[in-house]
Amino acid sequence: MRARQSFDDGLKALLSQGLEAAGFGNYQDLVSIEITKDNRFGDFSTNIALRLSTSTKGDPSAIAQSLVDNLKKNLSRFSISADIEEIKNVGGFINFFLTKSFFYKQLSNILKEKGNFGRQNLGKGKKVLIEFVSANPTGPLSVAHARQAVAGDVLAKILGLLGFEVRREYYLNDEGNQVDILGESVELRIKELSGEKIEFPENYYQGDYIYDIAKKAQGTNTGKTQDLREFSVKYILDIIKKELDDFGVGFDSWYSQKELRKSGKIKKALGIIKRDLYEEGGATWFRSTRYGDDKDRVVIKSDGAFTYLAPDIAYHYDKYKRGFKWLINLWGPDHHGYINRLKGAVEALGNDPLSLSIIIVQLASIFREGKPVEMSTRRGQYITLREVLDEVGRDASRFFFLMRRTDSHLDFDLELAKKETPENPVYYIQYAHARIFSILKNSKRRGFKKAKLELLKEEEG
Fold first, then answer.
1. pLDDT above 60: residue 461
2. Residue 204: its pLDDT value, please?
3. What's the pLDDT score for residue 440?
4. Can you tell me the distance from the alpha carbon of 11 to that of 75, in angstroms, rounded to the nearest whole number?
5. Each residue of 91-128: b (16+ CB within 10 Å) or e?
6. Quick one: which of 135, 201, 256, 449 is 20 to 30 A from 3 by CA?
7. CA–CA separation, 132 vs 396, rounded Å?
8. pLDDT of residue 339
C-alpha cells in the first residue's frame, strides 16, 4: 500500500508538471485520478482534459493530446517512469498503462508484509466510535439491518488499518412505545395459546417469532406486561446477537437507552444546551433552526415525556465525554431528515458538527426467481438475515450487501448468490482463491522458497 501511495503521489506530480508545461498551470485543482474498470483503457485514468475543455471551451481530444505529449516528454524526470509502460489519449481521457514489473512489486509487498499489507498511520490513534445497526429489539434483523451491519463492520476494519482507534457500538432502544407494543403482542399470544379468543390489533407484531416468545414465556413466572416486555427484549436481543455473530459482525458495546434515561444524563445534556431551549404550547423546544435545521424541534412534550431527540442528544453528549473525537452513525433512509437537527445538537453541545459523520445506507430488496419479496416488518413478512445466511452463506451474503454504494438501493438476487458459475462474483472470487491457495500449497510441498512472479505474463483466460 505504501508503494501504491508513493505511485499516486508521483502520478499527481507528473500531471501537475504536464499541466504547467501545456499552459494549464492554473487548473491543477481540477485533477482527479481514477482506477479504470476495464484494463483495455489502462490502469489509471484522468478526465482532466474534459474538465479543461469546459473551462477553456477548447477541444477535449486536442487538450488531452497536448497533455500526453508533455507527460511523455517529462516522464523520465520522475521516479515512476519505470512503472509506466504507455500514456494514451482515448476520446479526451488520458489513460496510464502500467508495466508488469509494477504489479510484481505489489505482489512481492503482499507476500512480504502479509497481514500488515495496507496498514498506515493516517489516524494516528484518533478515537472513533461507529454506531450502526441499532435495530429496535422487536424482531429478528431484516436485510436492511444486515446491509448496515456489514457496511459498518467493513468501515471499522478499514479505519483500524489506517491507524484509527475504532470502537463499534449498538444503540439499544429498549424502551418506549415499540417495546410496549412488543410486550402486549406477546401477552395476547399467550392468552391465545391458553385458549382465549382474542382480537389481535393490526398494528401489533404478528410474526411467528411472537408465538415462539409466548411459548417460552408460558413456562416461566413471567405474566405481567412489564415482565413480558423485558423477557421479550432479552429473547430477541439474544437472537440478534447470534445472527450478527454468525454474520461475522461484532460490537464492543451495547448502549441501553433505558439505562441512559435512568442515569440522569438526558436532563444533564439538555441543561448544557438550555440557552437553545424555549417553552411553547406547554412543550420544550430545541432551537435547531439556529444551526441550519428547517424548523425547531420538540425535546420534551407537553405531558413531560421526552421525544426521540432528547435521548439522542444525551447519547451523543456521552460519546464525546467518553473521549471519542470522530462519531460515525450508519442510518437507514427514513432518518435522512434527522441529520440537521442532530448535527445542530452536537454544535449546541460545544462540538464541531463536522466531527459527526452520518452515512445513509439505502434499503435492500430481496429477489427470488426474478421476483421481489414483499416486506413488512410489523406483519412479520420479510426475509431475515438468518434466512439469507442459511440460504446463501456468510461470504456470499457479505459480498452481495457490499456490491453497491451505501447511498444506492440494492437488489439482492438470492438465486444468483447461490450459483456456482462465473456470473456469480462471489463464486468467481472463491474459485480464484482456491486456485491460488492450491498453487501456494503445492509450491511449499515442492520446495519452492521464492515466488517467480515473472511467470505471471499470460492474459486472463
1. no
2. 93
3. 80
4. 10
5. ebbbbbbbeeebeebbeebeeeeeeeeeeeeebeeebb
6. 449
7. 21
8. 96
**Torsion angle in degrees (nearest 10) through CA of 85, 88, 94, 97:** -20
β-pair partners for 371: 368
CB 146 within 8 A of CB 361: no
pLDDT at 225: 60
SS3 percent helix, strand, coil of the chain, rounded to 5, is 55, 15, 30
CA distance 13 to 7: 10
Closest CA to 400 of 426, 361, 377: 426
Q: What is the pLDDT of residue 109?
A: 87
Task: Supply 427's cell numbers.
Answer: 463464486
Alpha carbon of 22 to those of 56, 150, 301, 376: distances in Å? 13, 46, 65, 60
**CA dihedral in degrees (255, 259, 265, 270; nearest 10)?**
90
Q: What are the backbone angles phi and psi of residue 201, rounded to the nearest 5°?
A: -60, 145
In whole angstroms, how far apart are CA 300 and each of 135, 172, 283, 348, 382?
23, 21, 6, 17, 34
Beta bridge partners of 17: none
Asked if 18 contacts 67 with a C-beta cutoff of 8 angstroms, the reply is yes
Give residue 395's identity as a one-letter amino acid code: D
Instruction: State yes or no: pLDDT of 261 exceeds 90.
Output: yes
CB-based contact 33:11 (threshold 8 Å): yes
Give the other-Cβ count within 10 Å of 337's Cβ: 10
- Of the candidates 337, 288, 359, the one whose C-alpha atom is nearest the C-alpha of residue 128 is 359
Q: Nearest Cα to 346, choosing from 251, 298, 279, 276? A: 276
Question: Is 226's pLDDT higher than 80?
Answer: no
Report the pLDDT value the prediction gives residue 344, as an integer from 0 to 100: 97
Q: Give the residue among 374, 380, 387 at the shortest CA–CA distance from 213.
A: 380
| Of residues 362, 404, 409, 367, the one with CA closest to residue 388 | 367
What SS3 state is found at 25? helix
